[in-house]
Amino acid sequence: MTNPFSSRGTVLDRQLTTLKYPEARVIVLDDNFNTFKHVVNCLLKIIPWMTEEKALEHARKIDQEGSAIVWTGPVEQAELYHLQLTNEGLTMAPLEKG
After folding, report:
1. Which among 68, 75, 76 is positioned nearest to 23, based on CA atoms?
2. Strand, helix or coil at 79?
3. Which residue of 2, 31, 58, 62 is 20 to 30 Å from 72, comparing CA positions?
């Protein structure tokens, strides 16, 4: 049996050190009652580093295509943003975890 703490130091298993946290996508859906401006304001208020230009782009996509992925990242943060956007009255798709 080899000593894992040999004089060469501890060697970490590359696979264990490169695992990613589970991610999820936050998707806003089009509806007939939220205004364009309200969607933009909610995105600016809740999604970190959201710019006005990007929020407008998302709102246009929601209006024209029926939905837009407004944030992708760790599941825990996605759950928070999903809940906050829901609480603001936006129509949300279920979190897409992947």
Report:
1. 75
2. helix
3. 31
Confidence band, pLDDT 50/70/90 cuts, at residue 91 = very high
pLDDT band at 12 (very low <50, low <70, confident <90, very high): low
Q: Residue 50 region, left (φ>0) first, then alpha (ψ -120 to 50), else beta?
A: beta
pLDDT at 58 over 60: yes
First-last CA distance in the chain: 39
What are the counts of helices (DSSP H) followed by strands (DSSP E) for the chain? 4, 4
How many angstroms separate the CA atoms of 27 and 18, rounded? Answer: 27
| pLDDT value for 52 | 98
Coil, strand, or helix at residue 67? strand
Q: Is 47 left (phi over 0), alpha (psi -120 to 50) or beta?
A: beta
**Burial bucket for residue 9 (CB in 10 Å: 0-12, 13-18, 19+):** exposed
